[in-house]
Request: fold
Amino acid sequence: DEDESPSKKLVTDHSVKVARHYNDRQDVGLAARSRSRIFFMRNFNNWLKSVLIGEILEQVRAAGSRQVSVLDLGCGKGGDLLKWKRGGISHLVCADIAAVSVEQCQSRYEDISRRSHPSERLFSAQFITADCTKDLLSEKLDDAQLMFDICSCQFVYHYSFESEQKAEMMLRNACERLKPGGFFIGTTPDAFELVKRLEASDSLSFGNEVFKVTFQSKGSYPLFGCQYHFSLEDVVNVPEFLVYFPLFEHMAKRYNMRLVLKQRFSEFFQEKVKKEHHRQLMMKMMALEPFPSHGKGHQATDTSGEYSHAEEH
Ligand code: SAM
Reply:
């Protein structure tokens, strides 16, 4: 807006950058070399989300919920739709700031619905384009009474730590419509690890040939708005913000949330891979060909970061 103060404008610009980045990603034509480099990482992330989602659904069911409703906060292009289908949920609300991603998510849902056998009852769904750090999702729900068993926020929450106001609104959207006993699950970069690596570096960046993280300064880290730039080959190139987890945990208490589990990916992997069915899913996902020669749809050329179609094969 014309009348926005410069500081407000600065804050707004980051959301615009993030939305533009994710909207544009559909057109990225990745070189084969890049695809293979990030292929296993994406499959690993997808495995991790599958296990997390599967286990939380077990807990929700064990607590007696039959009709499970889920909010996918920052759903992207719908990479987790098949995970929710496999989990047999009843209703899904998908929200994201990137309108093109939400459209793709909706058409992916319609595709899944068309391909589903009539005996399989696919969950109903609503798709919302919204900046979840600013807009109140409860005002946009088709069913104003809807309460969620689970809010899933995968690789998204760190964008909100740009300011206290934004982090607070994202958290409100995640938690305010959770049923008592409901779960907020998510994945986000580990701020402690990022700062540790930055402090160990003799510049403002660290990374390897695949990814690069660049800070603007080091030595002091504000609780909100501590921005770094993350790039992953040609796929991701976007400003992100450190999430100081103890603060996040403290903020969540306002919504009567209690921390049940927090693990690094490596710890999660080591624990879950001990279970036979998780290990089998991992083998299946890791065995996927990065460059299928024929007839496997778009699983290897889809740059949205989602290979979850393949999980079902
Ligand atoms: N959750 C999806 C997944 O796991 O595949 C997508 C993750 S992608 C790394 C991050 C997503 O967060 C993008 O789709 C982006 O548009 C969304 N996002 C970032 N800021 C947001 C905001 N303020 N409100 C809603 N979505 C946001």
